[in-house]
Each structure stands twice: as structure tokens, then as C-alpha cells.
Amino acid sequence: MKEKPLPVPDRDSAPFWEGVRAGELRLQRCNGCGSYRWPARAICNHCHSFDTDWLAVSARGTVTSWVRTHQAFMRAFQDEIPYAVIQVQLDEQDDIQMIGRLADPGLEPTIGMRVRADFAPADGDPPLVVWHPIEQL
User: Is residue 3 one of the residues assigned to a domain?
Assistant: First the structure.
């Protein structure tokens, strides 16, 4: 079995992955206008400020789209198919959407399902963000 690829934090994403290691979902927030940014980047797309902080957020959101993957595009994932990949609109801001895996592979996601981020150990570091329906927590 081949090893699974893991995220490689870079200058912009390192604070996000530090939060994941600490069990928190963190987002960049602009100090100029207060808007959250995802993915991380140097300049605010709302007010063009470079002044930013990283804050822990609720890690809750709503499923806005999903797909069930039935084909392993990498051998490392062959034993895990099928699984659901969901798009989650975070509660903090309507235009912040994250893509991730639904933690329970047998669960059928639905549009509007409420979910919460969790942090699953990976075969290396950092842990990965997975999503659980809020009713199951």
C-alpha cells in the first residue's frame, strides 16, 4: 500500500495547520474590515489590507454540495472508497466554504446538513480536518 499524500504547510497556510494540531479550526481575519479569508492569502479581497490575524472559529457549518467518490484516483485510497466529499459553508461568513471528507463513509450527506469539523489523526503530521453531522456529536 502506498502512503497517502499529506498537506504540506506553506508560509500562508502554516497558522491554519498549527490550529488543526491544537484541535481548532482557524481562519485568517482581516484587521482592516473584519472579513474572514479562506484560503489564506496575503491581501484581503474585500478592503485590500495586508493586516491580518488568525482566529479560532466555531468549526460549524452547513453542507452546500457533495459528491460520493467511487473511484480511487490514487492507490493509497483504494481501500476507503466509496466516501463522501462535502462542501461546507462556515457559520462565520457566507462566502467561506471548505471542502472536506464526511467522517462516516456510510452516511448519506444532504444539502443543508449541519456539520462540525473534527481533527482526525493521519499517517503523519498534520492531522486532517473531517466533518461530522452535528446530531452525531
Answer: no
47: in domain: yes
Helix (H, G, I), strand (E, B) or coil at 18: helix
What is each CA distance from 80 to 20, 59, 101, in whole angstroms? 23, 25, 12
Q: Enumerate the H helices of the chain as residue ranges.
A: 14-21
Question: What confidence tens digit (pLDDT) does each residue in 35-84 have?
Answer: 999 999 999 999 999 999 999 999 999 999 999 999 988 888 899 899 99
Q: Strand pairing of 60-69 and 36-37?
A: unpaired
**Whole-angstrom distance, CA of residue 56 vs CA of residue 90:** 12
* Residue reference for cell 481575519: 29
Global pTM value: 0.90
Owning domain of residue 110:
58-137
- The one-letter amino acid code at 18 reads E
Band of the pLDDT at 136, cuts 50, 70, 90? low
